[in-house]
Predict the structure.
Amino acid sequence: MYAMVLKQPKTPLEWTELPDRRPGPTEIRVKVGACGVCRTDLHVIDGELPDPKLPLIPGHEIVGRIDALGADVKGLSIGERVGIPWLGHTDGTCPYCLMQRENLCDHPLFTGFTRDGGYATAAIADARFAFPLGEEGSDHSIAPLLCAGLIGWRSLVMAGAAKRIGFYGFGAAAHIIAQVARWQGRSVYAFTRAADSSTQTFARSLGAVWAGASEEAPPELLDAAIIFAPVGALVPLALKAVRKGGRVVCAGIHMSDIPSVPYELLWEERQLLSVANLTRKDGLDFLALAPRIGIKVVTNRYALRDANQALADLRNGRFEGAAVLSP
Ligand SMILES: [Zn+2]
Ligand SMILES: [Zn+2]
């Protein structure tokens, strides 16, 4: 097999030939059809998330077909198309797993972070954490649903019954979740970097009722906001943009420091919360819903070997939608 491998944080990925691996008794091996590129991959590569497996194959939006099954795997078959998300393993026994909050497991493994991921021609996964995908839709259009879609979905659920909802940062996740929110009858307000008129136009094309700079006040107060961009300075701006009792959800795994804010921004029962990882139930709920909504995923395709270019383009905001690698 071949993979783009991170040997040390803050260095480019290296094209590497590796011996084929056999899945363990509870694992599957998939031939990768597509793997999405997520902002979290940048945080891993930049060393902003502590203690990655090294060397590491990044990538946690994997779509592929099973080509080897462990002896104890039930309910999956050779040739079946599956999705492999960020949550790669849980212990199933800690207090969080027992209270149906496996996203907060005390002993988790994360795909493309603490276990190898999908920037490769093949990937090994814990069979219990793979989602059967059926045959509808192309591999590359489904891949971004597996993190941008799933964690975006969890964030949208956490935002509650908000009619007017703001998205700060309009990248892969927001462009998917804007379509979900609109389908649910909500009004989407898109906040981008001040000069980024092309992303504002893109947001309007996906049904946003308003798009502007993050520093701008929306035309009316919002019921909730989701912050997708990893920028702590957006927190006070989002708190200012929501009404009394409104909610601000931080969707990212990493964020720069949140500046000190006057208490009055939180006063009147505004809520500030974060979303961590996903549960398998989030995945099953969202992947069942996605085909009914008819989500159009805008993808920018790169060859696996060009993963460093895809990451650089993501870092510099050079495309709209999501980047996807094809082996
Ligand atoms: Zn656990
Ligand atoms: Zn991700």
In short: The longest helix spans residues 280-293.
